[in-house]
Write a structure and sequence with these properties.
Blueprint lengths: L3 E6 L10 H11 L3 E3 L2 E2 L4 H4 L6 E2 L5 H10 L2 E2 L2 E6 L3 H18 L3 E5 L9 H22 L2 E4 L9 H8 L7 E6 H6 L4 H8 L3 E6 L4 H7 L19 H8 L6 E5 L4 H15 L1
Helix pairs in contact: 1-3, 4-5, 8-10
Length: about 280
């Protein structure tokens, strides 16, 4: 039976105005065993001043490993989303994220196709995505890193659309970071979709959607940054867990919520279900 571990995306501290290391310690204090840091290119004021959790890929990758070791947690992956349809951004960004992940010890880098250019056709976009994914996959294969494709934008919002992107590159380094909340908001049945892709799961974004957000946005958006506390919304977590237990590799449920309190409630709820 597949082991499922509990982790959390560092987005849960984004409103706390604290640095990365503070967020890692807070996750450990709650009881999470894994964290998913967010990385960015270049330098930006809030992170440099210690008011935001994102880490620059110009920093030493060992900064992430040291913070995790100090808190007694592990890295589940990197939140390294980049618009695959825009190769002038995505190719070097994703390649750098793969190298960064390999050095800091994160097994997965998560991304999606991102907003598309306004002037390209659907066919052109898939050629551009293939180029970006091929370049990144070659680096990932050599380093033992996996790329987790997430359903978040215009083409991946349906099972067929995500399958088409996955089929662009034949690589063992390419898998799925399944986002339960994004699947629901896109108008799909998250559990039915999860059943279909379970053999290719490499990471899971455990995102719940409130009834209010569901009523307002379901079928109208392609994703959302964070959800409500797991157990407070519409996702059938018992069924999600049962499906993931049959996946071929161990998984981390990386909770995506917007506050520390939601992080606590998510941990307690999911821990109760996982045992």
């Amino acid at each position: 039976m597949t082991n499922i571990h509990l982790g959390i995306n560092l987005e849960f501290v984004r409103h706390e105005d604290k640095p990365f290391e503070w967020g890692v310690q807070k996750a450990a204090e709650i009881g999470y065993a894994y964290v998913e840091p967010m990385v960015h290119w270049g330098r930006e004021l809030l992170s440099e001043a210690g008011y935001f959790h994102s880490v620059s890929m110009l920093d030493d990758p060992l900064r992430l490993r040291r913070a995790a070791d100090a808190a007694g947690v592990q890295l589940s992956g990197l939140s390294s989303h980049t618009p695959l349809c825009k190769p002038e951004i995505s190719v070097e960004y994703l390649k750098q994220a793969v190298r960064f992940a390999a050095e800091c010890g994160a097994p997965v880098v998560n991304t999606d196709e991102g907003p598309k250019p306004t002037w390209t056709t659907e066919e052109e976009d898939h050629v551009l995505m293939r180029y970006a994914l091929m370049e990144a996959s070659l680096l990932a294969e050599a380093r033992g890193v996996t790329i987790g494709l997430e359903q978040h934008q215009q083409y991946s919002r349906t099972p067929a659309g995500l399958d088409r992107i996955l089929a662009l590159v034949d690589s063992p380094a390419l898998g799925i970071n399944f986002d339960t909340g994004n699947a629901f908001l896109a108008g799909e049945d998250p559990c039915a979709w999860l059943e279909d892709v379970a053999p290719r799961l490499v990471h899971v974004h455990a995102k719940d959607i409130s009834v209010q957000q569901s009523d307002a946005e379901r079928g109208k958006v392609t994703g959302t940054p964070v959800g409500c506390a797991c157990g407070d919304g519409v996702i059938d977590w018992e069924r999600v867990i049962a499906i993931c237990r049959r996946a071929p590799r161990d998984l981390v449920f990386s909770v995506e919520c917007g506050t520390v309190e939601q992080g606590r409630r998510s941990h307690d709820y999911l821990r109760g279900l996982l045992g």
